[in-house]
Amino acid sequence: MYWFFVILAFLLAGIKTQKPKKYQKVSVIIPAYNEEDTVAQVVSVVKKVSFVDEIIVVNDGSSDNTEAEAIKAGARVINHEVNKGKGEALNTGYREAECDIIAFIDADIYNLTSSKVEAMIRPILEGKTDITKTKFSRASGRVTELTAKPLLNFFFPEISFEQPLSGQFAARKEILKKINFESDYGVDVGIVIDADVLGISITEVDIGAIEHDMSPLSDLNLMANEVVRTIINRANKYGRVVMIDEIGHYIRMSIVGLSLIILGLFTIFFVKFVPLTIGIMISVLGIIIALYYIVKVIVKSIDMFRKTPRGNLIRSFIKIHFPLIISIIVLLLMISTFIGAAHFEHGVLSIEPNSRNLIIYADDTPRDNTISVRGPYTIDSAIENESDQIRMPSDAMMTLGVKVNDTIQLDDNVYLVNETRPGEQDILRLPSEAKDFLNVEVGNVIQNSRLKEVFEGAVITHSFEDNGTEIVRETFVVSSRDIHACTYEVIIDDTSVLNSSGIFKKNSTYSIYADGDYVKSFNFNKKENVTFEYDGHDVTIAFDDKNTTSTKQFVRENQGVFLNFNF
């Protein structure tokens, strides 16, 4: 039996006990000036919070019974002989408090509850943040909206609290040692700015609705002055005035230089009536201005980083420098386009930029995309053993109205359409006979708008499928330009199987085949449907003159078979 107790003792000794968390003492500081009507109620509410160890009321030179009411409610009272301002009252309480965490709460709140106090302090106790500031359910005050928020947005754009002047906040005492307490109403916004710039974690906590006395206009005037002074002083201290003013000027001039470079390059390549010399002069001037001011921006920014605490400064830097960054990116993309279009051969450097084509369809033709960007396409030779295939980018297929496994007839040669190989998105691979017929060479770059011109006269047989089974093949000739077209619908046994559109010539004859056998011919009239019966199937071809255009000229009877059904 003894061996059991020995093993149990070893097991208990081997269990690693969790070290209890260090107890964190909490003090609540209540600055009060002539608040005899509410201070006792605020103190009594705070006393109900279980983890509050100390309540200090700083009587800031009150002339009423604030001190007596606070003492009666059970608070420790520290008196100022004269009124020194809210910031000084907070500073006095902070210095006297013997704690790890301090909460600052106004003495004039009528509806303060213990849950509101807990909401302020608990995130710090749980290690989620270093400072909490409150927001509450009412519109922001006049001073906040008319002074604090506009100035903060201008000098400290990374600060985006709903109510930066809320008045109630809590913090670790060791953190408050890093912050400079203002002596007046600027204390709240000063703490927010210092915490942000120094990189101290600060969280805005919603404590619900609060009720307190509204300040008279004279007090709001004083408060606004003190808040403005605090923000401006902090902006000077942390280099934000220099960032907005001096660096802002350098950034604007850098953007001017970059814009001139872009303008010069654009005129060189795309504006024919501007002489080449003018375009070069504009670009060179832009390069000089951009380099000069970008160097100034870099030097000034480095100097500011050396003098200013890091914290969240980088976020403001990004916002301030964002227009310059975008301009540089645009220029780099433009230059990379020109480099990609450069060719060096026999001692000659040639730069031939080709743009993609933005296509917007305004007609009623059913399409997957009414807006698309296509091309340009680079001509290359067909792959070995693929002399009967044309490998074509999907954008080019959409432009020509073909798909994989359709056929293209060029002169007497018929080629199977295939998709491009991986990594060759804009490569158009043609057999040598096809290149000769189309009069193109390896390396030629064809814009999407010219593709129909290059393939003009090509005879295309396009198949329509249903669940992988071919239903019908349509044959047309490629035209170089879009002209008014007619749509048609094929209905087999009362089921619509396809809709298509193309160019029919009025009163011309078109032939229909099925399973390779001739079925019938018809003279085109957009007001008359075509019907026939084949192998037990009733077929109707219904025409509709909608607002649509096409480059597909359907082959007439003397040119080939318009439709070939597969039953």
What is the gist of this entry?
The protein contains 15 helices and 27 strands. The protein is of the alpha/beta class. α8 (187-197) runs parallel beside α9 (217-237) and α10 (240-270) runs parallel beside α12 (313-340).
Largest sheet: 9 strands, mixed
How helix-rich are the residues, as a percent range?
Answer: 25-40%
What is the overall silhouette? elongated
Total helical segments? 15
Q: β content, as a range?
A: 25-35%
**Mean pLDDT over the residues:** 84
Task: Work out the number of β strands.
Answer: 27
Low-confidence stretches: 12-20
Look at the helices and sheets and give the structural class: alpha/beta
- Rg, rounded, reads 40 Å
The rounded distance between the terminal residues' Cα atoms is 92 Å
Report what the structure shows.
The protein is 38% helix and 27% strand. With 567 residues, it is an alpha/beta fold. The chain is elongated and about 115 Å long. About 2% of the residues have low confidence. β2, α3 and β3 form a beta-alpha-beta unit. It is built from 15 helices and 27 strands. The strands form six sheets. Strands 13, 14, 15, 18, 19, 22, 23, 26 and 27 form a nine-stranded mixed beta sheet that branches. 34% of the residues are buried.
Question: Which terms summarize this structure?
Answer:
567 residues; alpha/beta; 9-stranded mixed sheet; 7-stranded mixed sheet; 27 strands; 38% helix
Question: Helices, strands, pairings?
Answer:
Layout: H1 2-14, E1 26-32, H2 39-47, E2 54-60, H3 66-73, E3 76-80, H4 86-96, E4 101-104, H5 114-125, E5 131-135, H6 142-155, E6 169-172, H7 173-176, H8 187-197, E7 202-206, H9 217-237, H10 240-270, H11 276-307, H12 313-340, E8 342-345, E9 348-351, E10 357-360, E11 371-374, E12 377-381, E13 389-392, H13 394-400, E14 407-410, E15 413-419, E16 427-430, H14 432-438, E17 445-446, H15 448-454, E18 459-466, E19 469-484, E20 486-492, E21 495-502, E22 509-514, E23 517-523, E24 530-534, E25 537-544, E26 549-554, E27 563-565
